[in-house]
Amino acid sequence: MKKILLSLFLSILFVPKIMAQADTTAAYYEKIDQSLKYETGKITLSEGEGILNVPKGFKFLNGEQTQHVVGDLWGNPKDESILGALVPDGKGVTHSNSWMFVISYQGDGFVKDDDANDIDYDDLLKTMQEDTKTTSEERKKAGFEEVQIVGWASKPYYDTNLKVLHWAKELKFGQNPSNTLNYDLRVLGRKGMYNISAVANMSELAEVKASIPGILKSVEFNDGHKYLDFDADTDTVAAWTIGGLVAGKVLAKVGFFAILAKFGKVIVVGLIAAFAGLKKFLFGKKDQVMTKPKEEEELVEETASTEE
């Protein structure tokens, strides 16, 4: 009889509370989206002597805001090299189907493209999968989920005219049931390159690929800094070529980006809080308070004031 009453009590308590929490969570994240300041048109990039022509169907989010989204909201390692991001029109950064192109610059020299047509990318993939095991261990030590490369989502391709290399990996983070898509582009210049990485779920692969033609031409170096302006007598040549860029060994600091479940984390906190309240009601014991990120604490406070 006690079990039946408890089950009935749980159904009455949990369902409305979870629904209220979910509604409040959605409203909270909507406020985050609305607080972001986007730009369009021609953007002067703060590093690399280049400009970004925001392509049709996208809006630009500056470096500071993008670092907050990728690190604080999406749960990735912080990366201060991020210069900004291209976010699809009609999408926010907190929606379940959010994705964007993250932009950074690496000024380590002129990348020779002599080997572009000589690489066996299937063999390279196997090497990358082995190397990622080491990267994954380092991530775990730093408190992040382990990661593995499932395979190519799109095989590497080098555009000899635009001097742009692009490819896509399918990644798996921890026990996350949804795999992550990292679609990478490298825009080569005289003294370095722009890294443009699409961070999305695999379900967005077709949408991301459809946007690639516009993205390929969105970033360009200023005159005097283009790939064809290279001066062998004065300029530094990078220690790697096209194959090295795809393998990613020299880009270890960039790491792997993941999109985490944006609503799940806070809803789980709500479930735990609801169960803690039920436990206290049934057994009269005081539970320890969970430590939460500042944003989640504010959300819980908002929820409490709303319920009152």
Automatic annotation (TrEMBL):
Ordered alphabetically, the record's keywords are:
Membrane, Signal, Transmembrane, Transmembrane helix
Where is the chain membrane-spanning?
254-278
Q: Which InterPro entries match?
A: DUF2167_membr (IPR018682)
A Pfam family? DUF2167
- Signal sequence bounds: 1-20
Which domain of life does this protein belong to? Bacteria
From the Swiss-Prot or TrEMBL record, give the protein name.
Answer: Membrane-anchored protein
- Source species, please? Flavobacterium frigidimaris
Phylogenetic placement of the source organism: Bacteria, Pseudomonadati, Bacteroidota, Flavobacteriia, Flavobacteriales
